[in-house]
């Protein structure tokens, strides 16, 4: 609220806006003076080399880290809210986060775990209601986890488990979902499966998705919007087709590469070169 | 695995000796000049001398020399000096034993928080002594020795076995909690026995506060072979500790016989803990603090840590004991209490500052 | 089972089919959610009956058997005609002991389960990580060195437990993995405190030391009505608070990050630990730290409830265990009266080793 006079109004089509964002983790400044806009209803993917501040940025956007400087605003009906002016549950009804490999409570069943996502919609007096059951059913249906409803989560495979976690964040029924490397520890088939699922949800529900991905090619294939970080600074943002080229890969990752069109989707496909495999070697 | 200390960075091929360069070969790599050795030994000498000279009755250095050289037959202080010499000898042995055992334990379990006391060894010795007193009517320190040794050894084996059942490596928190749980279990059996027997408790309550005082040299002679065996085993295995610190899989691929190496070190640790506890009763935290100080000074190579512990352990224990004698005159605060008082703040700092990546 | 790969997700083709299936899905969710919940409710009800039965066994049976009808008369303030002495024995010895055991068991069980669940570690109960020892050390010092009597003893115990908890909290604050650090500091402090207790014990007469040892083992022998009044007041105040915190506890199970983004910041989830500390401390001050009750009530209750933690089930398990162990300690070996803590300790130690091993196996410890 204090910064209301300073922050520019959020233009249509922006779900989250950060200005001058500086975040520190374990006493070290990881993200410095970052300005970024997350387009509403789109899939935004954050990419960058190890230690560039991707996860820290996501922690900042999800209120796990209080910024040292700067502000984060959420769009709501043309107005904007400073995220730190919201009460924890208010914020939790608007932004959901799926951390990287959260702990699974012992012995919990799938339906119970997904139901935990309803917490922000409860108060001391208003407990579980039919609306909650409906939200859980919707979330489980959308993620294809209904068949697993009564199974203990610790018995599921990695791919099934990840779907259940996504169901939990969906049950939260927020406009924005943040995901920290949702494909880690999954094999390629399950990576594609999870990313397809997220895109389906984004397209059918209009949920704004922000995720960190390691794989630049998958990022280019699934993102509407790419944010590239290096050393805690934003070094590029835009649609993958406009953004990802050889110069971009060299600038962000310090890696020589050829960028070709993905034969399946037409999105940019990065083929790295190395000391053993130079670009010109074959020509 | 990555422990909060620099443990994970060490290797069997010591690359840490940057100042000496690789040319001198790994075997002779020494980061610090002999000056460190001289300093450590000098500190030990100071600790030994003050341990003999100071106490509820200070003894002038001249008299001390007289008694020690055998000229002081008629002197009134002779008895005191003899008792203090015995006490100092016990302190040197126990200090060295616990510090070396602690270093080996930390290396073996890759757990910077390992300590014979925290891992249930003391509680095991305690239960064995309780059984000895109340069931078998053992009533003397020399009688306790064997029981304490067996109890400590068994508890050490038990905790390692429990921790070894874990898949995917032993994490510091897990092992420490297992040790705490085993300690609690053994202690509750001890008090179960003691509650119904006042006489046993009266003997036990003085044993369970670890002290290096009141032990005769005859007792030292009884236990000495065990110290010798334990120290030799650990010193011989010191090179293997460096390999084990990299994790079992990597150690194996470096050609180490992991099972044998672990068993040897564990045996050495059990014998050292047993002998120390048999001689002095339970003394905690010494095995935690000294290896950390050593690692701070000489880096992560066990071939340097263990010798430093060998000298610094006795120094710290004697210093703690001497201070304990001075602060509560004419009585004393036992060394086992003093080490806990020194050790816990140290432990807290360690927990607070550690990176804990592997918790 | 390939459902995870190939199930058609969100964008199913026919909207009418979706609408028709929606009520099926809802029914399925409701069914899946209620079945385990019903089991937990049943277990809690059964445990409540068991706790009541345990109290009755403790009061009615033993060396001096009291008829149920006589007990009812005594409770109404009348003297049973055929057993005139029964009134005194029930009101001054048997009933206070049973009630103290019931209350202490409830408090230990709930506090232990709260710790284990919130810190996500089956070994992290107040009796392992130093809270109980904080209470004990303070009480032993008060008992032997300061000759404390009456309410000073519980006050000292509470102070000790709170001091240890504050230290743990201060160390964990502002660091990553605060929960784990808290646990470790608790263990270190516990080691120091047991040294302090041992030291104090060498400084007093053997009578005082023995009294302190009995107290340290945990005993219901000092059950008096004022103590019971104090403890039941504490339980009545703290139990509703615990119920509120239990909601946060269920989120704390998901880790600090999810808990925060679901609207319950991790620090708030740890408020439940404050309540648990208070419960454990008050109970400890009344009975001494009864070995392993806090530690084992949670895992036992969890097993009964089909793998899910339940605070109330854990509290009731604690109550049943304490009351029955006290009974066993009195009458199991003829002519020997063992304090309740000896019985729970002897039974609990092997069970605890089993928990350590299985926790290691699951990689959860």
Model description:
The complex is a heterotrimer of chains A (283), B (359) and C (365). Chain A has 283 residues and is of the alpha/beta class. Chain A is 29% helix and 27% strand. Chain A has helices spanning 54-61, 88-92, 110-115, 130-142, 158-171, 188-205, 216-222, 240-243, 246-253, and strands spanning 14-25, 28-39, 43-47, 69-76, 79-82, 95-98, 176-180, 208-212, 225-230, 233-238, 257-261, 268-272. In chain A, the strands form three sheets. Chain A has a six-stranded mixed beta sheet, sandwiched between helices. In chain A, strand 9 and strand 10 form a beta hairpin. The longest helix of chain A is centred in the C-terminal third of the chain and has 18 residues, at 188-205. Chain A is globular, with a radius of gyration of 20 Å. The termini of chain A are far apart. The relative contact order of chain A is 0.15. The model of chain A is unreliable at 1-10 (pLDDT under 50). In chain B, helix 3 crosses helix 12, helix 4 (121-134) runs parallel beside helix 6 (172-195) and helix 4 (121-134) runs antiparallel to helix 7. Helix content of chain B is 69%, strand content 0%. The longest helix of chain B is centred in the N-terminal third of the chain and has 32 residues, at 78-109. Chain B has a single domain, classed as ABC transporter involved in vitamin B12 uptake, BtuC, CATH 1.10.3470. Residues 1-30 of chain B have low confidence and may be disordered. Chain B contains 13 helices and no strands. Chain C has 365 residues and is an all-alpha fold. Chain C has one domain: ABC transporter involved in vitamin B12 uptake, BtuC. Chain C contains 15 helices and no strands. Chain C has helices at 3-6, 15-60, 68-75, 86-118, 131-144, 152-172, 178-202, 206-217, 225-252, 256-261, 266-269, 271-287, 293-304, 311-331, 340-362. In chain C, helix 4 packs across helix 14 and helix 6 packs antiparallel against helix 12 (271-287). The two termini of chain C are 31 Å apart. The chains are: A alpha/beta (283), B mainly alpha (359), C mainly alpha (365). Chains in contact: A-C, B-C. At the B-C interface, helix 6, helix 7 and helix 13 of B face helix 7, helix 8 and helix 15 of C.
